[in-house]
Amino acid sequence: MAQALEVASTDLQCQLNNTAHNTADFGFRRLVLRRGARFTITVKFTSRGYQPQHDQISFIVETVLDASEASEKVEFQLSSSVTENSWSAALGNNAGSQLTLSMCSPSTSKIGRFSLKMVCTTQGYSRQFHLGEFIILFNPWCSADAVFLASEDQRREYVLNDQGLTYYGTNKNISSLPWNFGQFEDGILDICLKILDNSKNYLENPKEDCSKRNDPVYISRLVTAMVNCNDDRGILQGRWDGNYSHGTAPTTWIGSISILRRWSNSGCQPVLYGQCWVFAAVACTVLRCFGIATRHITNFNSAHDTEQDLRIDSFSDENGRTLNIMKDSVWNFHCWVESWMTRPDLKAGYDGWQVLDPTPQERSEGIFCCGPASLKAIKNGDVNLNFDTPFVFAEVNADMVSWLVRKDGSRTKIDVNSRLIGQFISTKAVGSDDREDVTHNYKYPEGSEEERNIFHKANKSISLPNEPKKPFSVKLNANRVNVNGSNFEASFVVSNQSSETKNCRLLLCAQTTTYNGKPFQECGWKDLENFTIGPQEAKTETLQVKYTDYSGRLTDHNQICITGLVIEYNTYEVLVAKKVITMQNPELQIKILGEPVQYRDMTAEICFTNPLPENVCDGFFLVEGAGLTEEQRLPCPVQSIGPGQEVKIKAKFTPQKSGQRKLLVDFDCNKLKDVKGSKTVIIKPYH
């Protein structure tokens, strides 16, 4: 009788396999595979090698889960060739007591942790050996995978790039913020898998949840629910009122890594606080980590349509102040993500980019999540398709209706603007830090016949015609960007193209505003009760806005809404113009000292200059960089910084990864928030 086979050791060949599977950035301490792709392992036996005439070998692959009842097991035999659409194993090399195996997972495999066992049978006697554990992710390199993306450049940008840009500001003043997605940093993959195991779906029905973990539609929708904490043990708690005393201001974050680690280390308690670009950036990290190509998107003049009538109503009182009396709103910008996948749950033609929005705005099927909504469905007005397509369609395509609210409560419609909503929809370009405008993916050109036809197709119950051009018009002029700490001026031009004199009341109002369109505090006002303008005449009136008036009243992103309102006494005709102004913070200056080499200590010198006409106090710097350094919090070297005073601080770190990396720095103090800086560094590999 032949001696039974006994496994002495197993080599999962992590370096070879992880490199081949584009998971090398996770490191080589464990096996991380992409589904549908072959991998190689080596098994060494104790006393003798594998003898096909005497031995039979089979394998057991089992999901590793806390809920044992949800675990699934697959058994398969060693065969002569690998079958790429199912779990299979074939003999690669059999020499002495060492056996090399070529194996493959199906392109529809569930993602997550798995264990691998070998069953050796000799003359009816079987023994089972544990060979090791590994992780399987989605595979955008595999043509049979539902997340397959044909472009290698796009795969490297949307799956492998752990750094990126988010866009913010206004449609006339677009700024970018570097972000550390950090999906390959230590522990992040485990945290992302932990997110799945803490979802409401898993906790309520682990078996059903795990059965769907092969589906990117299901996984992506679950991620949008778990990034916010509104219904579950989610990651981030949102806050928009400016009171962040119990947590971190959303503008302070410069990457997803610290957020995910804080959530995991706290026993899955929500991290305080997030807003839309933070929610979207964390979702981007998780989805890229899982292997789903994902990009961060910013929509300027983004509608929040609570009534689902494709109409956003904006109200001003007779003093020109914007009123906060409706749930509908227009966000100066709003962020979400797009992920690439097929949509077998829809009819043909809706594959490709899908919109996913983790910011908790409205409930979808009872929970705060949004998407995936097919981008093609949004552009074509097919709002009857899953998931949440009407809501996203309104975000980029709703009509804006302006109203005047009189003292007696009555309302007069001032204007209908069908072109304001959904402008300069932006994402980082592939392979560069340029901004790519993707508005054309969401809708046809504004004002075109196709765009209006699609709008009415999406909501046949309403019809909001464009208002006829009036002989009486207004225009508001102001620099879109001004230096925070300075005074600025807005001018209001009233033009009368008619043959009659217009007797008017002119009101100019400045209000600090949140980025999601909510008025905050007044910081400038002028009321001219007797403003007369003759036939074919144009008159200009100015409003001075001083630092002393807006200081301490700015909200996140330092935005001020200027409103000009004209009321004509004879006909009671009303005209309004609005513009959002950004008070720009200075940019931190960063200088790298010495030669950047992998695993070698290096230093960055960071410089801040106070732009305000008063002292600032209690400053601190946050320094972070994927592959460069963990988050560092460094106190300002001086307690108080005078007007125009420059301070410098040095941050020391040891880069762990070579290639092009980005160091991100944030500075906050009592009078200034969200002062950012970044520096691209080329790290030479260690030899």
Describe the protein's architecture and organization.
The chain is of the alpha+beta class and 687 residues long. It has 4 domains: 131 residues, Immunoglobulins (Immunoglobulin-like); 307 residues, Transglutaminase-like (Coagulation Factor XIII, Chain A, domain 2, Alpha-Beta Complex), CATH 3.90.260; 113 residues, Immunoglobulins (Immunoglobulin-like, Sandwich); 95 residues, Immunoglobulins (Immunoglobulin-like, Sandwich), CATH 2.60.40.10. Helix content is 15%, strand content 43%. The strands form 11 sheets. The protein has a 9-stranded mixed β-sheet, covered by helices on one side. A 6-stranded antiparallel β-sheet has the order 21-18-17-14-24-25, with helices on both faces. The relative contact order is 0.09.
Topology:
Elements: E1 7-11, H1 14-20, E2 31-34, E3 38-45, E4 55-63, E5 73-79, E6 88-95, E7 98-104, E8 112-122, E9 125-137, H2 152-160, E10 163-170, E11 173-180, H3 188-197, H4 200-204, H5 206-211, H6 216-227, E12 236-238, H7 257-265, E13 271-274, H8 276-290, E14 294-304, E15 311-317, E16 322-323, E17 329-341, E18 352-356, E19 363-364, E20 367-368, E21 373-374, H9 375-379, H10 389-397, E22 399-405, E23 411-417, E24 423-428, E25 435-437, H11 439-442, H12 449-458, E26 472-478, E27 481-483, E28 488-496, E29 502-513, E30 519-533, E31 537-545, H13 547-550, E32 559-568, E33 574-584, E34 589-593, E35 602-609, E36 616-617, E37 620-625, E38 629-635, E39 640-641, E40 646-653, E41 659-668, E42 675-683
Parallel strand pairs: 2-9, 5-6, 12-13, 15-22, 27-33
Antiparallel strand pairs: 1-3, 3-7, 4-5, 4-8, 6-7, 8-9, 10-11, 14-17, 14-24, 15-16, 17-18, 18-21, 19-20, 22-23, 24-25, 26-28, 28-31, 29-30, 29-32, 32-33, 34-35, 35-40, 36-39, 37-38, 37-41, 41-42
